[in-house]
Amino acid sequence: MDAPTQFEKPLSARPSPQPPEGCLAVAIRVPVRIVVLVLVVPVRLVWDGLVVSGRFLYRAVLRPVARAVFVWPWVALWRYVVVPLAKALGWLANALLLVPLVWLYRYVLTPVGHGLAWVAGRIAAGLVWVHARVLTPVGHACAWVLNGVAAGVAWVAGGVTAVLAWLGRYLLVVPAGWLYAWVLAPVGRAVAWCGRGVVWLVKAVGAGIGVVLYWTARILLVLPAVGLWRWVLIPVGRAIAWCGRGVVWLVKAVGTGIGVVLYWTARILLVLPAIGLWRWVLTPVGRVLAVIGREIWDALGHAWRIAGHISLAVGRILATLFRWIFVEPVSWVYRTVLTPVGHVVRDLVLRPAAEAARAAGRVTRQVLTDVRDSARQARADFRRMVFGEPQMPRPVEPREPMGDETRTLGRSTTVLTKD
Questions:
Q1: 347-368 CB burial, b ≥16 within 10 A, e <16
Q2: Is residue 241 scored above 60 in pLDDT?
Q3: What is the pLDDT of residue 219?
């Protein structure tokens, strides 16, 4: 492998070629950036000052004020109003509702329920006994009696039904069958034959009348109408259609000519000047403005970044001056003046005062302890004077044997294992 080919970068790693810049961009780049930098630096300084002021204002004023106005009132309301009120309501609900309800359930409803259950059980037992010992035998007896009565009624009804059936057969059915077979059937056949004859006659008369009407309508209406359509209407319609096609062709020709004239007039008077204006005026001006705008935008970006560095340097300088002018003198005063004075005040004033306060507190606590002990002793003497000496508890006998009977590892004192 050749050396140039070995160390040659791949095509994907090569930087893409930059498009060539025009002379206008190169000519206006430096002046534009200088002017923009001069204009942007004060704006950036003001902006950074506003940012710093806003942060300080937010930390020192807005956030504490917001907490004091919006957070702390709600916290205080919750802590000192809502929570105590809720606890009070809970205590009232417990004292006024829960405890009475529990007492009512335990000492009223439960005994009443038990009593009602006992009464219901006794009533159910009585009803079961009545059903088993009284109602069931009575029901069986009633059922036996009703079965006998039903059997008798069924036997009587069967006999009556048989008699009525025999009478109906020989008094109604047999005469009706004879009447149908020997009277009604022949009469019906004769009537049907007469009806068929009448229908055939009506059909024949109707067919003759229809043939006559058909030929009359054909001769008087259809043939004249066909002749009128074939020899009059069709030629007239064809003539009208030919005239209409001619008129349409003429209108199309005139419209086409007018459209061509208007098209070329508009093209010459409007389109060609507009194309020339776009191509020879607007496009070059737009390209120049695009180059200027791009350079101004790039200059704004560079100027904003450079102004940021300048603003940072100015801020550091101001911070250093502030530290030299204000912070270090104040720190020196605090270290060299206020701290020794504070130590002297602490050693000569505050510590003796604290010791005196602690001694007074100890004396006060001792006095209160003595008073509390005296009050407790007085209460004990009063109880002893009124109620007498309290009964001393009896000593409990020890579970382990005493003296020689002490349990050892080598000797047992139980009954079962005693030596």
A1: eeeeeeeeeeeeeeeeeeeeee
A2: yes
A3: 80
